[in-house]
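Archive record
______________

***
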Amino acid sequence: MKPLFIGIAGGTGSGKSTVASKIVEGLPQSSVGIIDHDSYYRDHSDLDPEARSRLNYDHPDALDNDLLVAHLEELRAGRGVDVPVYDFKTHSRHKDRRRLEPTRIIIVEGILVFVEERVRKLLDVKIFVDTDADLRVFRRIRRDIEQRGRTFQSIREQYYTTVRPMHLQFVEPSKRWADLIIPEGGENLIAVDLILGKLRHHLS
């Protein structure tokens, strides 16, 4: 049986990863695989660290969608893939890869998942996580400081320079392609339960 591809999109800090985690937790072990779109950021190890930090990582061109599409097609054909491992502290790819074998359900999660038409056409179910901007920005600040070693000043500069403009230009308009819009992300237990019910039926 071909994998069922579920796309989960939404703004930075909207709760996409929480929704994905709750889906994984609510389904049988080994029935779900996850692909993080962020893993497909282009490698810029040829640039010095300062130049890397100035790049626009919130534009669709920052991601290697050719590789993502190739991997999704391989998984749909029943073959495993080697997913890149991206280091957000250095803005470069690791030499190591993460092996992902086909599973009954595969979640593709990222802010720009619905923007690229080739990716969008491969998704069987498209979910958009819609969370208020003030909650999203506070979650991003906490994540970038605690997990990615960023300073508040660098986060603020990036937010006003690229994150907010790209959200308005690309992420928010991509909501139109969603099959389901979830307000407040993983905190919306009713929506998560409805999704799990549909997926459990698919697995049975």
User: Anything to note?
Assistant: The longest helix spans residues 152-171. The chain has a mean pLDDT of 91.
